[in-house]
Each structure stands twice: as structure tokens, then as C-alpha cells.
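DEPOSITED CHAIN:
***
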Amino acid sequence: MDSSLASRPVVGILHPGAMGAALGSALKARAGTVIWAAAGRSHATAKRAELADLVAVPDVAELARRAQVIVSICPPHAARAVAEEVAAALDGRPDPPLYIDANAVAPGTVRDIGALLGEPRVVDGAVIGRPAWEAGRTVLWLSGEAAPAVADLFAGSPFTARVLGPGLGAASALKACYALQTKALPTVWAALADAADAYGVRDALSDQLARDGVDLTVQLDALRARAGAKAWRWAGEMDEAAATLAAVGVPDGFSRAAAEVYRRMADGS
């Protein structure tokens, strides 16, 4: 493990949603303790943290004071604000923690977080898969100077940690590209169905698709089932994916369209 990390560091999780609770639980074997900030969090969050055996501290400031490693796992649109809150809490601390941004954000966003907190102390993380409670199903991709130290923390855990290299942004770029096929492509079914409804040709479209072996209703039901209550969160992820593409001159319109589809789903429209 990197010499800048204690052998059994205190790890702080911001915040223990379903994925955060799984990450926190996965780190218990290698951490001295895993803590989370209780202020302003919901009863559901508190219950998940309790079930994962995480230790509550009063607020982010206390978590930042105590932790040697902080994991940020929050809605994509909030990643920068969470990092800013941590930076404010760390002001004046002589031994800043290692900060793992495990959010579905654009490479530019995580590089901004690196500039805020100190690039050598920031690791870009990308979780691909479901919250992991058993090994073999979920990969945690890592990049940044301290990525090998973070991979060591997850050794033997349900999350398979893989290091991409020392550059911030590589893990986020991989996650964004992967999300285009898992989250952006399926939204085409909702877009074409809405357009067909507006033009009064939905039944004809369904019939024509059926001739090609495609059941439009099944595709739409599958999209709604996958997104469900997460549609608002996936909208933010698609915004970040669009920024990822635009930054390297790749057309980003379908990512932004996917974000709008998920916003409409979240609004019930």
C-alpha cells in the first residue's frame, strides 16, 4: 500500500446510498473503521449505513477531520459540490486525506476536483456494475497517482479493483463511454415511441417493428424497469457523458437527448 496511507485507515463514505453502503462494507476488512456523515441524511440512508455496520459521525466537517480516505459516491450533478464541502472542511489540515471520486462524471469534472483538493491526493474511480456484496460481478476502475493504493484497499473485497494508470480522468472516461451503450442507447425506444404517438402512427410502428422481431412494448417496459426511480440520477450521468464526448470533439447530441428522456421519465411525462 502507498506509504502515505495508514495500514488500517479511517475511511469516510459520502454518502451511503445503495452503492455507498456496499463500498463502505467492502472496505471494512482493510479499514480501521468506516464512517459516514449523518447530518441532513434521510432515515433510509441511516438504515443502509446501519445494515452495512458503518459508524455515524455528526457531519462532513467531522468526517473530513477524522478520515485518512474519503470516498465520494453521490448523484453526478452533486460531485463538485461534495468536493467543495470537503475542501472547506479540510482547510488548514496538514495531512489531507486521499479522496476517491467514485461518481459518474466527466473527466473534466474529476480533474477540477483534483485541482481543488490536490491532484496527487485524488483518485478517479468508476464503478461498473451493481452494488457488490459478493465477488465477481462489479468492477471498480481507478486512475490517478494513488490508484494502486486504493486498489490495495479493495483487495479481496466484492469489488474487483483495476488500475488504468496515473492520469485523472481515465476511469471517468471509461465509465462515460460504457454508459452510452447501457443508458443512452436504450432511450431511443422512448424517443421514437413519443414521436410516433405525437404523429398518430404508434400502432403502425409497433406492427412494423414486430415484423422485424422487435416488441416495442417490451423495450419500453425494460427501459422503465431499469431506470425506475433512478431516472433523475441517470439524467445527470448522461449530461456528464455528453461533456465527456464534447471535450474530445465527438458529437454529444444523443447523450444530451438521453438526459432529456430521463428527465421526462423522472417527471412522469
